[in-house]
Amino acid sequence: QVRVVESGGGFVQAGGSLRLSCVASGNIFSTSAMGWYRQATGKQRELVASFTGGSSTSYVDSVKGRFTISLDSAKNTGYLQMNNLKPEDTAVYSCNARVRVFAGYDLDYWGKGTLVTVSA
Fold first, then answer.
1. CA end-to-end distance (rounded Å), the chain
2. Could you write out the DSSP letters of every residue in the chain?
3. In Å, how far are 22, 44, 61 from 5, measured between CA atoms?
4. C-alpha angle 109/112/115, rounded to 5°?
5. Cα 113 from Cα 45, distance rounded (Å)
6. What's the sign of the alpha-carbon dihedral 18, 46, 58, 25?
7. Which pLDDT tens digits describe the chain residue by residue (120 residues)?
8. Phi, psi (deg, nearest 5) at residue 56
């Protein structure tokens, strides 16, 4: 069984920072890729940042220069450092982790999300 759990969300004023964590655990060897998504109330879920191996990262335009994604494969833990937060960043943030399971192939797992609220 594989679990993916996010943490680090909370309430912050505009201009502040938060660091989200995403931990994959269970019958896995490693985590090779990760994506952070967010869904605001009444809006569709969007991919905010992704780490696809090596130093390959990508960001949605609205967070470029403010958010940084990273992945510690040995710890099966990913991070999303969010700086200069804006009220429009308010959303539930979820991670999708690509893990190598003991059977020898890769699967994607979702966490339940963590709420980020940014006040003006």
1. 41
2. -EEEEEE--EEEETT--EEEEEEEEESEEEEEEEEEEEE-TTS--EEEEEE-STT-EEE-GGGTTTEEEEEEGGGTEEEEEE-S--GGG-EEEEEEEEEEETTSSEEEEE---EEEEEE-
3. 6, 21, 26
4. 135
5. 12
6. positive
7. 899 999 999 999 999 999 999 999 998 888 999 999 999 999 999 999 999 977 799 999 999 999 999 999 889 999 999 999 999 999 999 999 999 888 888 999 999 999 999 999
8. -85, 115
Neighbours of 11 (CB within 10 A): 12
Which residue do the tokens 């009444």 mark? 42
Strand partners, 67: 82
- Amino acid occupying residue 117: T
Longest dimension (CA), the chain: 48
